[in-house]
Amino acid sequence: MGSTKDSVDHFVRSYGDLLFDLCESILWNPSSAQVAWRSIFKKIRNGCRFQRFSSYERSWVLRIACDKLLSFYAQGSQKFSAADQIKLDSTENPNTRIKNFNSYFHKLRPELQILLLLRDKYGIPYSEISSALAAPESSLKIQRQQALRALEEWLWNDR
User: Fold this and answer.
1) pLDDT in tens, 31-55
2) pTM of the entire structure?
3) Whole-angstrom Cα distance, residue 91 to residue 3?
4) What is the pLDDT of residues 65-121, one digit of tens each?
5) d(CA 92, CA 65)
6) Backbone phi, then psi, for 73, in 5-degree steps?
7) CA distances from 14 to 24, 51, 58, 101 (A)
8) Residue 159 has pLDDT above 50, yes or no
9) For the chain, percent helix, then strand, then coil, each to nearest 5?
10) At what angle do helices 126-133 and 137-156 cross, to 10 degrees?
11) What is the CA radius of gyration of the chain?
């Protein structure tokens, strides 16, 4: 790749939409997603000078994005109040629960949200998710199944 600007333009064209959608899905707030997205690309721009890519470019980008997103999430993304949690948990009608899927999805730990989005929404292979989340593939497969079971229980549990 040529200059750093050319490199960043390449990354924005290649991964910009995916990363913005990931930011917005995890942080649940468009303005926070924009701040996180810019922060991710700033980190990518700074790292471009030192990285020489081969087949692991997307894994490297996803690793930066996951680290930044988890940091932003810890700093104060939208969390449920006790009243919101009780209201959500007391919902009886399965159709209403499905309409509130995003709320149930955000009950999961942010790492699990990222895992499900990368694997099931974007179709990223486990090998790249493993690199992005710094976790073994076998562990991610088990965590994914546990997260899906938790969502299933929250959505379909006949209290």
Assistant:
1) 989 999 999 999 988 876 555 555 6
2) 0.83
3) 54
4) 999 999 988 887 556 666 666 666 666 676 777 777 888 898 899 999 999 999 999
5) 37
6) -60, -45
7) 18, 17, 9, 29
8) no
9) 75, 0, 25
10) 90
11) 17
